């Protein structure tokens, strides 16, 4: 009579315990990787929007787009950056686009439209108390909490 081969109960229990230990170590690491990815996405979105705002201002100051005499030259809304504005130097009425689309804040609720995920700062508002106004001078994240670097998301 041959003896049956297989694993003993002790061997199975030890294997399951090792797998559980490895999984418990990997779970927090996965959370950190996801958070780091969102922070990288936030940083990239802020750079793109701010570059587009600066390009709009430069175009307004150089006379390439219409600007009211008493206006600051910054875009009135974020939507203008993606919808484009008429190039006054071009007789054909071509439009100048500063963004392909408005990036969204990765920490915001997914059901919100992208332009509603950002806090807006007008040209005439102070940096320590940003508020919306007649134009968009800067944007900031509305997310609560701090980044992995210890700086609150609102100050990025």
TrEMBL record:
Alphabetized InterPro entries for the sequence: Bac_GSPG_pilin, N_methyl_site, Pilin-like
UniProt keywords, alphabetically: Methylation
GO biological process: protein secretion by the type II secretion system
UniProt key word GTP-binding: no
KW Endoplasmic reticulum (keyword) present: no
GO CC annotation: type II protein secretion system complex
Protein name: General secretion pathway protein G
């Amino acid at each position: 009579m041959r003896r049956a081969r297989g694993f003993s109960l002790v061997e199975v229990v030890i294997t399951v315990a090792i797998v559980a230990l490895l999984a418990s170590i990997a779970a927090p690491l996965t959370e950190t990787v996801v958070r780091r990815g969102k922070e990288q996405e936030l940083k990239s979105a802020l750079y793109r929007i701010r570059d587009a705002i600066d390009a709009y201002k430069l175009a307004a100051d150089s006379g390439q787009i219409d600007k009211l005499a008493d206006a600051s030259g910054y875009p009135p809304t974020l939507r203008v950056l993606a919808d484009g504005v008429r190039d006054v130097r071009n007789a054909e009425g071509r439009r100048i686009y500063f963004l392909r689309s408005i990036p969204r804040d990765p920490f915001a609720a997914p059901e919100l439209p992208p332009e509603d995920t950002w806090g807006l700062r007008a040209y005439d508002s102070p940096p320590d108390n940003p508020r919306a106004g007649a134009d968009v001078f800067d944007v900031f994240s509305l997310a609560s909490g701090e980044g992995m670097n210890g700086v609150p998301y609102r100050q990025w």
